[in-house]
Amino acid sequence: MAKLDKTVGFIGGGNMAEAMIGGLLAAGVCEASRVHAADVSRDRLAYLKTTFGIHTTGDNCAVVDGCDVLVLAVKPQVMGSVLSTLDAGCGPRLSKKLVITIAAGIPVQTIEGMLASAPGLAVVRAMPNTPALVGCGMCGMYANPHVTSADRGHARAILEATGRVIEFETEALLDAVTAVSGSGPAYVFYFVEAMVKAGENLGLDTKDAFAMTLQTVKGAVTLMEERGESPKELRQKVTSPGGTTEAALRVLREKEFPEIVMTAIEAACQRAGELSRQYV
């Protein structure tokens, strides 16, 4: 991964910020001396400084002044107060910086509006997911018209430190990203829960049922990645006529499993749109 010749600042030092900082340092994208972080928790700042050797402060504007790229990594419910403080204290100084927001549901328009003292602000909105915490994340990103080609490269370098990134030309598609990959890990966890419970019902102890299910999911994902075949093709190969897999899949079809999954994801997408509109 190419080295980023920029200083990166984080406002918010929670789990996702920690994952991104750790990823940047582990991949050699940034040196610790070029990473800054601010948070309201002194204990959290002490942890980040001790763990990563980065610069830490309780002053958000100090991070703004010390960085080229600013990552807004606070929860959506406190973003308004954070942006208001930035706009009043150091907003004009943001005008030549790249801002990346990973706060779920907050549109670029809202970021721009609340940082009105920095007109023409370059903003990238990103939607990561929790596997970023272990370097296996999936992230969708959208860049506003003020983001240059170079800025895009910098944003991708930062976001790819925790997994894969796909850029979208239309911000509205981030609702679909939220529904498919943002919330997606929960669907997988739920399916795993059901498989483990089924194993228990059939006489397996919990530890063995979980180990078998986890390895089955990992193996299936690896098979899809390495074989280059579609999920449908791989499913058909393992489904022998009159066999056990066919018996199980028949029940799933009768219970309208595909329709249930699609309806659930559509509901997540609709809710993502509703939440985004609350912040406009």
From TrEMBL:
Main location: cytoplasm
Keyword Ribonucleoprotein assigned: no
Subcellular location: Cytoplasm
MF (Gene Ontology): pyrroline-5-carboxylate reductase activity
Residues bound to NADP(+): 11-16, 73-76
Pfam families for this protein: F420_oxidored, P5CR_dimer
Keywords, comma-separated and alphabetical: Amino-acid biosynthesis, Cytoplasm, NADP, Oxidoreductase, Proline biosynthesis
Residues annotated as domain Pyrroline-5-carboxylate reductase dimerisation: 171-275
Gene3D superfamilies cross-referenced by the UniProt entry: NAD(P)-binding Rossmann-like Domain, ProC C-terminal domain-like
Binding site for NADPH: 60
UniProt domain Pyrroline-5-carboxylate reductase catalytic N-terminal: residue ranges: 7-105
EC number: 1.5.1.2
Gene Ontology BP annotations: L-proline biosynthetic process
GO CC field: cytoplasm
Function, as annotated: Catalyzes the reduction of 1-pyrroline-5-carboxylate (PCA) to L-proline.
Family stated for the protein in its record: Belongs to the pyrroline-5-carboxylate reductase family.
Record-given protein name: Pyrroline-5-carboxylate reductase
Native organism: Desulfosudis oleivorans (strain DSM 6200 / JCM 39069 / Hxd3)
Lineage of producing organism: Bacteria, Pseudomonadati, Thermodesulfobacteriota, Desulfobacteria, Desulfobacterales
Gene name of this polypeptide: proC
